[in-house]
Amino acid sequence: MAYNLLKGKKGIIFGALDEKSIAWKTALRCHEEGAQLVLTNAPVALRMGEINKLAEAVNAPVIGADVTNMDDLKKLFEETQKHFGGKIDFILHSIGMSLNVRKNKHYTEIDYGFNQKTLDISAMSLHRVLRTAWEQDALNEWASVVALTYIAAQRVFPDYNEMADAKALLEGVARNFGYHYGIKKKVRVNTVSQSPTRTTAGSGVKGFDGFISYAEKMSPLGNATADQCADYCVTLFSDLTRMVTMQNLFHDGGFSFTGVSHAVIEQMEK
Ligand code: NAI
Question: What is the pTM for the complete model shown?
């Protein structure tokens, strides 16, 4: 059901790779709610061509940008403002990549060169995006920026590897830049900490099947889906959540505050 929550708003969606992507679902929901969009992803992801289907469905241009490249980001924000004929109201940062996970490096043996790239792509990219917007004064007052994160930033999930550190850094950037942008222009910056979700990035985590069913059993409401995450992002982009900023918001069916569930105790007693 649509409520016109984003009528007249304009946003950039980073990270729609394929139909499973959280960013893909969020773009569809934002469109349903009346927003105008620009889609962006890394040039290598654009070459897959999938994003063109989404672009057609939400009537949005696709502008390539590697989030670790400041020139790409400058061009993205300039072209986006030209396309909209004005400033931007919301941004979804839905980006994650671990080189050490890809290369099967154990956490205790990570390659530091790969690690720097992981932190740059998955965490400092939020700083780069916000800084580019800041320097071009590209955001409207009360604009809303959301980045997706995972609870491994606070608690140990051993196979999440270096991404746990990347998410902790990402949440730190959201808090710190959120402070400065709040004062400068009432811009809100938050992270949404999502349940494990079957996507390309999610399934890259070792032991993902066990991981996702454990989370399902540990969450009173069950795991939150990508579609439900898209709904939540819409509320954060809307004017109904104007005073929420610098927060890490758990969207996980109650997982984060559950010590143990009856379902898990029963499993242990078997
Ligand atoms: P996905 O694989 O569909 O999305 C990741 C995106 O990052 C892809 O579109 C990819 O092209 C983009 N990306 C990678 N390197 C880039 C670069 N250099 N420049 C620009 N874009 C780049 O997977 P998913 O799950 O939708 O991931 C979205 C976000 O949600 C990520 O931050 C992820 O860590 C987070 N998240 C995912 C969970 C899951 O279980 N799937 C759980 C909690 C958070």
Answer: 0.98
